[in-house]
Amino acid sequence: MWRVLTRHLVNTVECGGATQLPLLTQQFQPPHSHQQINYLTQAKNNKMSSEKPKVVFVLGGPGAGKGTQCAKIVERFQFTHLSAGDLLREERAREGSQFGQLIEDYIRNGRIVPVEVTCSLLENAMKSSGQSRFLIDGFPRNQNNLDGWNRQMDGKADMQFVLFFDCAEDVCVERCLGRGQSGSGRSDDNMESLKKRIQTYNNDSLPIIKYFEQAGQVKTIDASPDAEKVFKDVERVFVANGFQ
Ligand SMILES: Nc1ncnc2c1ncn2[C@@H]1O[C@H](COP(=O)(O)OP(=O)(O)OP(=O)(O)O)[C@@H](O)[C@H]1O
Ligand SMILES: O=c1ccn([C@@H]2O[C@H](COP(=O)(O)O)[C@@H](O)[C@H]2O)c(=O)[nH]1
């Protein structure tokens, strides 16, 4: 099935189809003479800023507070927040999306959407933002995500570290249910979906965090205190890693 999906993504790029999901390449248009200067200037500027975008992966259980802390990091440091879950929800809601129903089925059942979809959304969002520092929130969540990222983003981004929000399961559940009760409108902020999300997190996501940990790339934050206190620890991590 995923061979078919990947083929579809490639075809959509090749055919310039209506969906915006796989806009990974831009067709080169020969410039008119007056535009040539712009192209040259652009090429020069590109060369000057040829550093790869910096990426911080933000991981943790459902409701651990990743989104809340990312908003604070964006306020304090120059980062662009890309939540993989939000991008999937946007794609689900986009009229004409080929993947709306598939994404809904995966989200409701707490399963992880195939990386071909998620990584394309992330790469497109990175490119179209024009920014160079990204918090990638809620990704990579399993081996398929990690392999797909490494395949698609090889040489295109510099992963700085993994920010891991460590939070007890009962606290995560309470926070998600609280978010649902205060009107998140999320189809997975309910006990039935949460059980599945937690199972997926324990079985599929924790091994990825362990893998990064063994590589010495994880900064662990205790996510149980109030959000301000959690952010104090987060801030220390960013400063210690050279971000001002
Ligand atoms: N430190 C905290 N203490 C208490 N409540 C918090 C804290 N951090 C976040 N919350 C609340 O918990 C809920 C979940 O937070 P948030 O959306 O940031 O989590 P998340 O990790 O991004 O969740 P998900 O992975 O499900 O998207 C929200 O209602 C938020 O206001
Ligand atoms: O990389 C990803 C990120 C998310 N999903 C799916 O979305 C939901 C909700 O994600 P949040 O990070 O909690 O917003 C998640 O349970 C997955 O079903 C995904 O498949 N891949």
From TrEMBL:
Q: Which GO terms describe its molecular function?
A: ATP binding; nucleoside monophosphate kinase activity
Positions annotated to bind ATP? G63, A64, G65, K66, G67, T68, R179, P225
What does the record's cofactor remark say about binding? Answer: Binds 1 Mg(2+) ion per monomer.
* Domain of life from the UniProt record: Eukaryota
Residues bound to CMP: N145
Q: Which InterPro entries match?
A: Adenylat/UMP-CMP_kin, Adenylat_kinase_CS, P-loop_NTPase, UMP_CMP_kinase
The record's keywords, sorted A to Z, are:
ATP-binding, Cytoplasm, Kinase, Nucleotide-binding, Nucleus, Phosphoprotein, Pyrimidine biosynthesis, Transferase
Q: Which cofactor does it need?
A: Mg(2+)
For a ribonucleoside 5'-phosphate, which residues are the binding ones?
R89, R111, I112, V113, G138, F139, P140, R141, R186, R197
* UniProt xrefs under Pfam families: ADK (PF00406)
PROSITE patterns named among the record's database cross-references: ADENYLATE_KINASE
Q: Which residues form a coiled coil?
A: none
Where is this protein primarily located? cytoplasm
Q: Which reaction does it catalyse?
A: UMP + ATP = UDP + ADP; dCMP + ATP = dCDP + ADP; CMP + ATP = CDP + ADP
Choose any GO biological process term that the UniProt entry carries and state it.
Answer: 'de novo' pyrimidine nucleobase biosynthetic process
Q: So what family is this one in?
A: Belongs to the adenylate kinase family. UMP-CMP kinase subfamily.
Role played: Catalyzes the phosphorylation of pyrimidine nucleoside monophosphates at the expense of ATP. Plays an important role in de novo pyrimidine nucleotide biosynthesis. Has preference for UMP and CMP as phosphate acceptors.
Protein name, UniProt field: UMP-CMP kinase
